[in-house]
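Extended Data, panel c. Modelled sequence:
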Amino acid sequence: MPVRIVFFDVGGVLADDIHLPLLSRLARERYAADPDAEARFRRAGIGAWRGFELSPEASEEVFWSQVIREGGLRESVAELAALVRAERLIPFWETRQIAARLAERGVPLGIISNHCQPWFGEIAALLRLDEIFPAELVVTSFAVGAAKPEPRIFEAALERARRRIPHLAADECLFIDDKPRNVEAAGLLGFQGFVFDARRDPPAALAGELARWHLPPFEGPTPPANPRCGP
């Protein structure tokens, strides 16, 4: 079946991950004398994230408070929030540019992302996602109350896409994610898909995969190499 819509993940595809890389760096640089710090911090971050990604009302203050309490961090909520803004809101402009070129050629685009409301809003503003991803096709875990690889988030995305593209079949949807388990979960519902991790894979790899699906390949000048500099 031809692809009629392309869904992008955010973390790992359109932007970098946020809290776990930050916690790992803090453990290595500030808690070097504690050999268990990194594993403990990451456990706390993973545990607190579940509630943060599933509710639009979940606050960053509550999230970091739980991480501090369960991980035994010395940093304050305010300091951790400031570090997020200083170093972890990292857009992947190369991916954004390829997505924009698809949109320019009339390919409908959507998002399926496990994310929290505060950080997603800031990343979306930074990347100007509203210019290429229609709001009704942006499906986030905090908005639907389900997170990948749960089927419900993909079902929500398909339902929204069908409002825009009548008679859309699941196998006419292409899903791009950095985690194989999420691509596999989407595939169980009929989605086509492939794994792409912008931290590891070059933009040409994404363009090449899209070309395999007979979608417009990446053309033109090389996107900016600095991930903090927009086009």
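The chain is about 50% helix and 10% strand. This feature is highlighted in the accompanying rendering.
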